[in-house]
Amino acid sequence: MTVQAMQVTQTVEAVTALLPGAAALLGFLGASLAALAVPGPSVVYVVARATAHGRRAGLWSMAGLETGAALHVAAAAAGLSALLARSPALFDAVRWAGAAYLVWLGVRELRAARTVGAVTGDAGAPSSPRRWRLFADGVLVDVLNPKTALFFLAFLPQFADPARGPVAPQLALLGGLFVGLAALVDSSFALLADRVSWRLRASDRARRGLGRASGGIYLALAGAAVVV
């Protein structure tokens, strides 16, 4: 066996040792899928992006959201989420910052909807925000949602076992599995939303309506974000 093969084998064994037993792992996957089966704010956000701007916008937004979720997982593993849970002032500050960002996104979408077709009158392919902006928006929307941090803080430790070793790596691994499942679910919703709405985006009038609807959704998400 080569040195590289031995290193891969050792890595696989180390990762496997962090996973719960078969029954507990199936329970974790089942609970994760059950939590993801009910569309939440992340799904609504991705669907709004994909409906207004197409498949790529939805997928880049999904990538940003899952990156933000991965950062929450890292914070939970490092104990930072516990600090957030113990500090109402910090929790409120993050919550209001997230709501403000969603309001800004909503206003930006509503303003963009007013200009659709105003310059060229072209009813061709809709303009879409740049990929880096879609990704960054997704990251910030998720990072500035303290409820996501509290979810991981409450959910992941239920499936960790101190008898298997340090808890932090277990939380990180379980959180990574959850984020992977969330990526599959959210991307499926993005593709479905694009398939349903692509004909509408060929019309300036419909695109304006989609833009207004997306802006309204962001504002509604902002309102939901400030309700504990």
Q: What is the helix/strand order?
A: HHHHHHHHHH
Report the β-strand fraction as a percent range: under 5%
Shape: globular
Number of helices: 10
What count of structural domains? 1
**Mean pLDDT, rounded to whole units?**
81
Main beta sheet: none
Stretches where pLDDT falls below 50 for ≥5 residues? 119-126
Quaternary state of the chains: single chain
Instruction: Please compute the radius of gyration using only Cα atoms.
Output: 20 Å
Number of strands: 0
Could you describe the 3D structure shown?
It is a single chain. The chain has 228 residues and is mostly helical. It has one domain. It is built from 10 helices and no strands. It has helices at residues 3-18, 22-37, 41-53, 55-78, 80-86, 88-114, 131-143, 146-155, 167-197, 204-225. The longest helix is centred in the last third of the chain and has 31 residues, at 167-197. The radius of gyration is 20 Å and the shape is globular.
Tags for this model:
0% strand; single chain; 228 residues; mainly alpha
Ordered list of secondary-structure elements with their pairings:
Blueprint (H helix, E strand, L loop, with lengths): L2 H16 L3 H16 L3 H13 L1 H24 L1 H7 L1 H27 L16 H13 L2 H10 L11 H31 L6 H22 L3
Helix pairs in contact: 2-9, 3-4, 3-9, 3-10, 4-7, 4-8, 4-9, 5-8, 6-7, 6-10
Concise summary:
With 228 residues, the chain is mainly alpha-helical. It has ten helices and no strands. The N and C termini lie far apart (56 Å).
